[in-house]
Write the structure tokens for this entry.
Amino acid sequence: MNDRAPQTAEAEDEDDFAPSRAEVVAIEAAVDADDGPQLDALLEPLHAADIADIIEQLTPTRRRALLRLYSGEIDGEILSEIDEAIREEVIDALPREVVAEAVREMDTDDVVDLVEDLDAPDRAEILAALDESDRAAVEQSLAWPEYSAGRLMQSEVVTAPGHWTVGETIDYLRREEELPDQFYHVVLVDPRRHPTGYVTLGRLLSSARNVRLADITEDSFRTIDADEYEGDVAYAFNQYHLISAPVVDSHDRLVGIITIDDAMAVLDEEHEEDMLKLAGVGEESHVTDNAIQTARQRLPWLVVNLFTASLSALVISRFEHTITSLVTLAALMPIVASTGGIAGTQSLAVAVRALATRDLTSGNARRVVLRELLAGMLNGLGLALILGLGGSLLFGSPWLGVVLAGAMIVNQIVAALGGVLVPLTLSRLGLDPALASGTFVTTLTDVMGFFAFLSLATWILL
Amino acid sequence: MNDRAPQTAEAEDEDDFAPSRAEVVAIEAAVDADDGPQLDALLEPLHAADIADIIEQLTPTRRRALLRLYSGEIDGEILSEIDEAIREEVIDALPREVVAEAVREMDTDDVVDLVEDLDAPDRAEILAALDESDRAAVEQSLAWPEYSAGRLMQSEVVTAPGHWTVGETIDYLRREEELPDQFYHVVLVDPRRHPTGYVTLGRLLSSARNVRLADITEDSFRTIDADEYEGDVAYAFNQYHLISAPVVDSHDRLVGIITIDDAMAVLDEEHEEDMLKLAGVGEESHVTDNAIQTARQRLPWLVVNLFTASLSALVISRFEHTITSLVTLAALMPIVASTGGIAGTQSLAVAVRALATRDLTSGNARRVVLRELLAGMLNGLGLALILGLGGSLLFGSPWLGVVLAGAMIVNQIVAALGGVLVPLTLSRLGLDPALASGTFVTTLTDVMGFFAFLSLATWILL
């Protein structure tokens, strides 16, 4: 997979899926010139998601100006695409009636997504703009925990009893005025609203009018519990190729439906989260964050690292006598530690990913750990050979070569094992395997790298 | 987002979306006992994707035994879920007629995915099993470059002329016997097969029979070029909430269609790739890899790091005189370097992600770099305060505190800038921003960390 086409900044600027640099420059110019009609003309052909991206990427001053000039055109679609980091700011900048009009057009899942992070007065104002049944649906959804399937679902579901025929169903759909914007299945429910199966629209369209719905249901049918964690929901959609899945409460009653586009967005956010957590960025990061927010997201793990790095310092300080005797050791010791850090990071990234995709389970954990141990030994031997020979020749001391080689082997094994055992242990403890694994593992490889190298040196060279 | 529910190994073993540990143990026991009927009974209720996962996670010996016992039941669905790393092995282990039967059931995009990594004889054998029109479709798809939209699409598209009415279309769908397993749109084409719009099935079902298709098309319609990189296709699906998108050749003629489930799988693979590349794992990693394959995936960047780490050694060796005079410096110097490494990794992860999601563009690059610079200064000051005070008190030397603090500030700024400038530069050069960024950035922070610390120490303390 390493020979895939790269994503480049050039490609991004000319790609089919983002406004070009020239368009953005023209939009900025229209904003600066206070030219509303020109701005409308430039934004009109763009997709709501791209307009939202442009609003996010503008400077705060230009953003306010654009919102003022364009406020009449900000609809539900644009509003639901706006990043949560600036959502409150955008809503506050818009006239009340524009926001009210926008949310009335939105599906309930988008309204939930919009209001869940707003403070109480803003939220109340938006809910007040909805008609009664939508408001009830949004409030029902907000009663489920954050990041649950209940928050992700939309309450608009197309249902039918299983004894209906295709013809009856089509007639019903033609009569019904309030259908969801997008739907992919008709969910079959019994009289107590327990979902019993679903029929794809393709099947419905290609079957004769007299066929009963219960006879053309899909094998792929499965329901999702409303309190299921949204990350697991996204995994299930990807694993089982679901397009939509009915959501049920604890009495197995239908309360809503989740569609794949929302699951895909969650999968993407989960990725972001794993990547940032592995790198020690504490909170979600947004392109709109300022320097103080950015610094604050990152400081916690930096401070932790300051203390864990002091462990390395402590280890080294025990060998000051050795270093004084042979100061070259001070120069060479970071090589072993740093190569161990890379190996630990490699092993860690593979393990965290395998845990997320359920490829690393309690069934094969022992085998995977053994594999890492062997792989660490193999690479340790290979690197030891290069470093040992290089060190011997460069410094004219075969024994120095032996010290470097020995420390390298030890530390590569520690790195490979640490990279898989740390996330496995965190996971067994019910903690997120990505969280802080990086700091643990690099501390481990630093400490062991310095210790192995300096103690071998003390033993062999002094 | 950091307070989301964690994914745990426990949760994974009891979750609704993977076979339980007990089920896997029972399956292993049935395989070991050579008990075919029991194995059938255990696997029958499972989803094809879960059966494939179990096959992947078994030891190679058990895997062969399972394939022998279960070969009659291996169908196209299971086969297309099998990880590419062991696909060849699985196909070779199955009787020819089982494979032939399985591929005949599959949609053409799944056949393409199955055969594209097989060697020529296996591929020819599978293609020979297809009927003529499917074989032509697969061969047409294979003519597009690897990782392109052309490889991802399925050739089965439901099309209709725009002047057809809803009624005519439904009658056609009822008559047509060879419809795709899943379809979400009817694509409107002109007589030269240029796609001109599409109609969702929900719209088709809810409109009266006499409505013309051309009057109920969707705004979301957009086509994808067959040579578009699949990662960009996945981005477009997520950005524009597409469910399916027609694929066109260079003459804008319809050649196939991509559905969101395939785009979601690509998004997931792209993420894996970014994560592993950032961590310096060269190739795709699979749970089925043995230790030698694992070692080989990781050795290249370890060797590179061996050499870049030697740069640090070179820097330190220029200060041997300083270290000999004050050997405590050898113990303290990794603190500054290591904290810089974490800061660089943080900045890097945020930048690589922002480039992938088009949040970091040439339009806001300058602003983002400035923000990183300021954030680096802020965190540098904070960390310098802690480390400087701690160092002063612990070693009773305020000047040592000043050296530690000064080096920390310099290196935090270098880390924050390096973390964003390295991937931006790689991206401008048309290279993958994730590739090797980690090694570059940690080398930079190591070298600068040691240099800043030791040169300040030489200047101030000696």
About this structure: Residues 1-13 of chain B have pLDDT under 50 and may be disordered. Residues 70 and 253 of chain B are 43 Å apart (CA to CA). The longest strand of chain B covers residues 195-200.
